[in-house]
Amino acid sequence: MRIGIDLGGTKIEGIALDDAGRVLARRRVATPRGDYAGTLAAIVALVRGIESATGDRGTVGVGIPGALSRLTGLVKNANSTWLNGTPLPGDLEAALGRPVRLANDADCFALSEAVDGAGRGERVVFGVILGTGVGGGIVVDGRLLEGPNAIAGEWGHNPLPLPDENDLPLRPCYCGRAGCIETYLCGPALQRERAIDGDEAAMARYEARLARSLAGVINLLDPDVIVLGGGVSNVDRLYANVPRLWQAHVFSDQVATRLAKHEHGDSSGVRGAAWLWGGVPAD
């Protein structure tokens, strides 16, 4: 049995999967915002509750809204800021009495969709989160790519390509820089533009920005499929319009990369956390 935990800013979800990817148990609690000790205790209680419900003991994977520093082993870059600088992996392992694997929540999304979702059977999968923030994850041959700096797939903090008059002045980002892709493509940014300019104008600009940004990913990574997740991914027109627009920015005479909608929806993150312990669902 594989247990996955999705540590979000407002909720913590836990799931148990069998070897075929079937859900054995699922639980959800509110996140103790601003309270590291409370967050740790909530995760431990979720794992123990799932194991009590199933009568089994499982491996534990956790998706977090940040990353682990290769230098210190502590959490970094988390927008749930009370996690930053904490030894979350070690504390969880001590509390649960077993190894625990942690990964960025966008990485978990990508892994879930690559293993048994919209990217199943593809060699290179780029998973994209278009939600409160903008994240990404890379899976190659069924294995999550993290990189020596633990930032593989963090396309949201690259500069927006080819900004035009509608994109200027460059928008400030919480990371301390300006003009990051995230500041233009996150859900709140789209909502603000819709409120000001209406749906059609805002969506046309959004699609053009997304196409330029994903073209850069295609030029560097050349993935078989790009899978979208997060709230904005539910806008169906993206899947027809963005591939049409990205052609002009990709360094190729044709683009075979597919743009696909997630299959597991809000469950992708927690399922991917469970799959951090590897394996391919049995038929």
Secondary structure blueprint with pairings:
Blueprint: E1 2-7, E2 11-17, E3 23-30, H1 36-54, E4 59-64, E5 67-68, E6 75-76, H2 88-96, E7 100-104, H3 105-116, E8 124-130, E9 134-140, E10 143-145, H4 181-185, H5 187-197, H6 199-221, E11 225-229, H7 238-246, E12 258-261, H8 268-274
Helix pairs in contact: 1-2, 3-8, 5-6, 6-7
State the gist of this model.
The protein has 283 residues and is an alpha/beta fold. It has helices spanning 36-54, 88-96, 105-116, 181-185, 187-197, 199-221, 238-246, 268-274; strands at 2-7, 11-17, 23-30, 59-64, 67-68, 75-76, 100-104, 124-130, 134-140, 143-145, 225-229, 258-261. A 5-stranded mixed β-sheet has the order 3-2-1-4-7. The chain has a 5-stranded mixed β-sheet with strand order 10-9-8-11-12, sandwiched between helices. Strands 5-6 form a two-stranded antiparallel ribbon.
Task: Describe, in plain words, how this protein is organized in 3D.
The chain is an alpha/beta fold. Strands 3-2-1-4-7 form a 5-stranded mixed β-sheet.
Walk across the major sheet and give the strand order. Answer: 3-2-1-4-7
Most strands sheet: 5 strands, mixed
Order of helices and strands: EEEHEEEHEHEEEHHHEHEH
- Beginning-to-end CA distance, first to last residue: 16 Å
Number of helices in the DSSP assignment:
8
Characterize the overall form. Answer: globular
Share in β-strands: 15-25%
| Number of strand segments | 12
Average pLDDT figure = 94
Structural category: alpha/beta
Helical residue percent band: 25-40%
Sequence stretches where pLDDT stays below 50 over 5 or more residues: none
Q: How big is the Rg?
A: 19 Å
